[in-house]
Amino acid sequence: MLAAAMSALVAAATCADEPVDQAVALFEKRQYAEAATLLATVVQAEPGNARAHAYYGMALANSTGDLDGAVAHLEKAATIEPGSSRYQVWLGSAYSSKAGRAGLFKAASLAGKAKTAFEKAVALDPSSAEAHQALLQYYLYAPGVAGGSVAKARDQAAAIGKLDAHRGHLAAARIAEYEKDWPAADKAYRDALALQPERGATHNSLGYALLRQGHNDDAIAEFRRYVELAPGDANPHDSLGEGLAAAGKLDESVASYRKALELNPAYPSSVWGLGDCLERLGRRDQAKAQYKRYLELAPRGANADEARKRLAKP
């Protein structure tokens, strides 16, 4: 009887975890809107489920740009599981994003909360490269009055390098980009790829660094390599679309964005990119349809204000 009871408990726990596991799988595929829809039900039914709150907060931030909702759910997750380094990283990131949209005084308060969360994440798990990376980002981009410091960012990069050589090179590349030291950034990314050449995300990062320098063809080559490594993921096709658009290859860019949306119809950046390319090609009505779709998917997204401006034009 005891064995039967234990089996029933395990089965019940497994069933309870299934919706969250499904949502996490969607989240990892960058299907944020679908993940958010599934998790909205879970957090109502299981208000004490920290994992559901954490992923719901991140899904909201990435799908609709709802940073207030993201902060609320990530604070809830961090309260339920105060010992989670990852939840502190995510909470700090939400505070940072919200600070970027706030007024001066509110931004200062949010920046302080972000710094506290990142420092707590490192203290909770000094072996977490993710936590050190988050604190590095804060030190790099925060103003000095809020604790920003390139020297402290370098300290975090050194700590990351001791934990993971590949990620250490990526951290060095990020600092080099911040300082506009493009040769150093390129070298750091290529050093990272020398260690792990099959890391598509690193090809993506190098591609964007090259794009920012105006090396469009080299950037496109990196994005194509990313597509080769992860053909079933929307993001590589989205990046390739952006690179092709920057090079003025609009028809090819449209094809890449359409491929991304074939893989993930709710991918906001590809919806926006497709609309922008269509407008540049003179296909105004088709472009407007994409802008409307973008606002449905991400009403607070990075391009939401520009989408509204373009829709308001006659």
Keywords:
314 residues; disordered N terminus; 80% helix; mainly alpha
Compact description:
With 314 residues, the protein is mainly alpha-helical. The chain has helices spanning 2-28, 32-45, 50-63, 67-80, 85-99, 104-124, 129-141, 150-163, 165-178, 182-195, 200-212, 216-229, 234-246, 250-263, 268-280, 284-297, 304-312.
List the helices and strands and how they pair.
Blueprint: H1 2-28, H2 32-45, H3 50-63, H4 67-80, H5 85-99, H6 104-124, H7 129-141, H8 150-163, H9 165-178, H10 182-195, H11 200-212, H12 216-229, H13 234-246, H14 250-263, H15 268-280, H16 284-297, H17 304-312
Approximate helicity band: over 70%
Biggest β-sheet description: none
Mean pLDDT over the residues: 93
Q: Give the ordered list of helices and strands.
A: HHHHHHHHHHHHHHHHH
Tell me how many strands there are: 0
The fraction of residues assigned to DSSP E strands is under 5%
Oligomer type: single chain
Taking all Cα atoms into account, the compactness measure Rg is 21 Å
| End-to-end separation | 74 Å
Question: Quick one: overall form?
Answer: globular
Structural class comes to: mainly alpha
The number of helices is 17
Question: Segments where pLDDT lies below 50 for 5+ residues?
Answer: 1-16
